[in-house]
User: Fold this.
Amino acid sequence: MKTRFIFPLVALAVSFSVNSVWAQEAFKIGLILPMTGPSASTGKQIEAAARLYMAQNGSTVAGRKIELVIKDDGGVPDATKRMAQELVVNEKVGVLSGFGLTPLALATAPIATQSKTPMVVMAAATSSITEASPFIVRTSFTLPQCAVAMGDWAPKNGMKRVVTLVTDYGPGIDAERYFKERMLLNSAQVVESLRVPLRNPDFAPFLQKVRDLKPDALFVFVPSGTGAAVMKQFLERGMDKAGIKLIGTGDLTDDDQLNDMGEGALGVVTSHHYSAAHPSALNKKFVDAFKKANNGLRPNFMAVGGYDGMRVIYEALKNTKGGQGGGEAMLAAMKGQIFESPRGQIYIDAQTRDVVQNIYLRKVEKKDGELYNVEFDVIKDMKDPGKAK
Ligand code: DHB
Assistant:
């Protein structure tokens, strides 16, 4: 009699305390970024965007407090991996996020798989990254998306002989390959493919070679933070005056640096998924709020990848009532999300877990006294061309 009465009470008390402890426990988001080193601007942009998202959307979701745990990997893959391990094992994060460069994302993928922790890639953009773990979801972009768009645009605009110059690692090799393939399909040629090292690149000897080859255009991919150096050396050598057009993926005319590149950048055409000048009400609101919170800093494509990554995490938390069901339930709730981003409408393809989005053709123009990538054409809802292979 007694036990029959006490038992349900004990069970109720235990379940109540477990639930309330669980609800009181913060949901931790591990955010691993290069805050120092050559990719520090990527870390700065993404951290600022994540903080803005939280300031605008609150730090409690589905009754659970959200805690952002930020780690600086300095852009070194071994550090990223070690930090991810530490975040999963000691901090018990529910999501890993960030990943400023391809090697950093690839180094961490096995940790996401082993621990069944969703890994939101907010920056790195080599096509194959999403295939490195079934727990990876990407909110940035892929280089094949941009390179294909440019490989169609350039030949239609008189550029039949082009030299490519890319940074010699994953995203650069993707850019080179998909641009060249598309040029060939359009009966145009890549007459030389040049690759510069990721660490301490010296563009001078490569640009001299390009000058000697006298192509119609030079197509460039360099990672965020490097475009200004290429632009400076291109102009110093008078390559524009020699009749060589400069084109590339939008990483070249990165909004983080563009306004300091000077008038020589005017007219450069690039293909990309985000411009701070994207003419939508949502983007205007985003750019204004980001600048206000960050001393006038203009958000770039890295910021947007971080902002949208936070959105994907927040919505997954709402749909799982605060992360119930663990990493697998969170992952399932990330797949298939469709929403309006500051870049335009995007969705997370449920099969590939990669971002599907518009790719814009943009030209550097002066607007209100500042340099911007002004969109003039769009390829709608582009899936990653790398996935079809
Ligand atoms: C990658 C890094 C960048 O800074 C960028 O602009 C594009 C791609 C990368 O390492 O994947």
